[in-house]
Design a protein that fits this description.
By secondary structure, the protein is of the alpha/beta class. The chain contains seven helices and 17 strands. Strands 1, 8, 9, 10, 11, 14, 15, 16 and 17 form a nine-stranded mixed sheet that branches. A four-stranded parallel sheet has the order 4-5-6-7, covered by helices on one side. The chain has a two-stranded antiparallel sheet with strand order 2-3. It is elongated.
Amino acid sequence: MNRQQNDISLADIISFKGEYLGISLPSDYRFDISRRLSDPKIIIYENLPEKDDNIVLGEDTIVLASGRLLNQDLPAFISKICSGTPPAAIVLEIEKPQPTTCISLEGAGNIPVIFTTLDISLFYKRLTESIEVLLRPRINLHGVLMDIYGLGVIIRGKSGIGKSECALELITRGHRLVCDDMIIVTRRNDNVLIGYGSDVIKYHMEIRGLGIINVKDLFGISTIRDNKKIELIVELIDWENDKQYDRLGIDDKTVNILGISIPHIILPVRTNRNIATIVEVAARNQLLKVKGFHSARAFQKNIIDIITRMGNIERIKENKD
């Protein structure tokens, strides 16, 4: 589990939602986008009240400008923006950016210049949303996040134990993949955990012996989703013959993630045990628990009631005798 600092960089933003933001960087992009931004602010250049006066910007400011500025002297515009306190980045709206344009703006100095194919007002909305998500408390978890019967389930365990294979079988049964391998988990203000994958790996799975597959292309858009509330963790472990495992399930286990307790099931794996089916049943059982019905505790209560009634009958017989 890798907890990240509560700040971000342009690299984080682009890795997280580059496609969503209409950003595609060329392989020889020369600007440094790794600097951490502790309190990023976003302004739209056209909304500044006095564009002819000296522009005062903070070093964590991201300046957005519409495509209309491309009809003007672009290097002069960039030089003007960078003349005072340089911003963290400049984002320009352009319909079809040429790769060479992204790396030939000498007026920018070391300030990253990024192009988006989105309308700048839509980009502003999506960028604000993405930054808000990235600034939440978050950690990275290794595993697979699935939507099973509407329940967000993380399947985790050591490398090679069969997490992805289990998830693949669940997908063929109609359940949905959120992400495989690396799950980014954030805590919302309402103390709900949300899991998602980065743009780089979303829709993809690694199946040993087969390689990387694209679930969306193979099975269709109905088999994937972008994010999901996390409500159950199933941990796969190797079966050990001399070890005792929980056979009743009366006591619920939990694991703490970002200060929130999530139901936790430890599932031993061995040959001829259909793990996908057991994970499905675990999800169904958790949904029953959420609705207030606990199968194991109901079973325990029935046994106790039967024993109590039998004891009462024996006492009645003894009194008669």
